[in-house]
User: Fold these one by one.
Assistant:
Number 1:
Amino acid sequence: MIIAKRFEELGVVPVVTLQNPSEAEPLGEALIEGGLPCAEITLRTDAAVESIRRLSARRELLIGAGTVLSIEQAEKAQAAGARFLVSPGLNPRVVKWALAQHIPIFPGVSSATEIEQALDLGLTHLKFFPAEPLGGIPLIKALSQPYPMVRFMPTGGINLENLEQYLSHSSVFACGGSWMAKSDWIRKRDFSEIRKETGNTVHTINSIRSGDEVKDRR
Ligand code: 3PG
């Protein structure tokens, strides 16, 4: 799956909630400059679909929709240019629709039963949500024993401090999170903070991959 491969290359998928479509362009700019040209825009606000439309216009950005809870939402996101879909849970109707449309979808799972439902639908790359409240890496380790064919994108409660333990596990193909694009910064239109924290995230990913000690650049 090409999108999953791209997520794996990037290491982290920014999860962003926008309140106003005017935030889309500066957000995209900050993510590009910071070195993570990708975002999951959550469909939690009225600004989401138009924001996806504006961000998708930038060819260097890989933009998808998050919090996809219905086929109707998925259709709107796809029409606006979303190239992937993410949902907090596994809705078989939405997954089947996405598969029929050939749009990659990463539904959230949190248990063995949900993993088996996803495998039954033909999916192997899954969001693991909410990662930290569920128990984090020990649960991923336990679930990867019976399901070595499954790869996870843990999301929920991940930050620069715990990123390494997730990215170091072979069953993890990427992590999702909002720490580099906090709603508070977006509300204040503090896009330089987003650029900075995105840069810190890329630096951390590179350090994890090269086995270097992670140095705090903030
Ligand atoms: C979410 O759905 O809000 C995402 O999982 C992001 O989680 P985070 O804000 O804990 O990174």
Note: Residues 15, 129, 155-158, 176-179 surround 3-phosphoglyceric acid (CB under 6 Å).
Number 2:
Amino acid sequence: MDMFDNKETTGLENLGEFGLIGHLTKNIKLKHPGSLKGVGDDAAVLDFAGKKVLLSTDMLLEGIHFDLSYTPLKHLGYKAIQVNLSDICAMNGTPTQVTVSIGVSSKFPLEAIEELYDGIYIACEKYNVDLVGGDTTSSRQGLVISVSVLGYADEQDIAYRNTAQEGDLLCVSGDLGGAYVGLQLLEREKMIYLENPKIQPDLEGKDYIIERQLKPESRKDIVELLRAIGVKPTSMIDVSDGLASEILHICNQSNKGCNLYEEKIPIDPMTYDTAREFNLDPTICALSGGEDYELLFTVKQSDYDKLKNQPDISIIGHITEASAGRNLVSRTGNVHELKAQGWNAFKGE
Ligand code: ADP
Ligand code: MG
């Protein structure tokens, strides 16, 4: 690990598996009364007091899901937790516990794993979840992180993908495409660096989209907002693979069609301008970019008044009968079939 080359480091072989687990988990203080037993036995013991239990898992592999040449380990730990919390939010639930499993190769000193866990604990603290277990193994090659998350919801609050109804409004939180454009920026600076290590990365003024890529936030706040204003989504999914793909999941599973209006898709000005610099269509970045971790959901038309003035929620279309198709209505009024790869897959037209 280059970033630790100039520091005193501790080889993992000095601790052994149990030493490492003990070291990484020694400061855990469980926050939830439902976390009866956390790290330290053969299984965690949890109490959900009559609620429905939500469970989801995501695995991140070095070289596939992250590139350590521009991803600080602390951000990576933070992101590994967020992408999991996002799945519980997407069910309209409250995340409460996580387990974290890691496969680590000997190229990582203890200090690197500590950085990773710093990010993990910061995310757990901020989103009020307990780390209650995991697994630790060695890996021949890259770093592997697998997180499982548990949460709860009342049965009537759970929002599935397959329950959108004709006439429902299609809504999305935050803005889209930023994480993808941020990734393009990081990849470009990496190429420049590899060609000439003397050139410093030029990420000036691009903080927002870099953060969207490296340090995403799950939208627990949106779940809480919807509850507070008395809106139960008729269906919901989180935006991990791009808006188009997620809308198609809802339409396919609900057996419905949709009209999505290009002009309504929320795109931050920095995302827009940087996409243009890269000769990319900002709309396609939003439709097919992915990793935004916003919430896409449908609501009854009668909820329109409760949502129309929410700054963090955009109404981007509506649900139709299946036979009407899945349509993207462009700014000029042309109708395209909505495809998961965008209508001109990143060619910049
Ligand atoms: P077992 O042999 O039963 O799999 P382990 O020795 O792997 O048990 O784990 C001991 C305890 O430490 C368990 O409670 C487990 O959940 C926890 N644990 C192991 N690895 C991690 C990790 N990377 N992060 C958090 N907890 C962990
Ligand atoms: Mg184990």
Note: Residues 169-337 form a domain with the Phosphoribosyl-aminoimidazole Synthetase; Chain A, domain 2 fold (CATH 3.90.650.10).
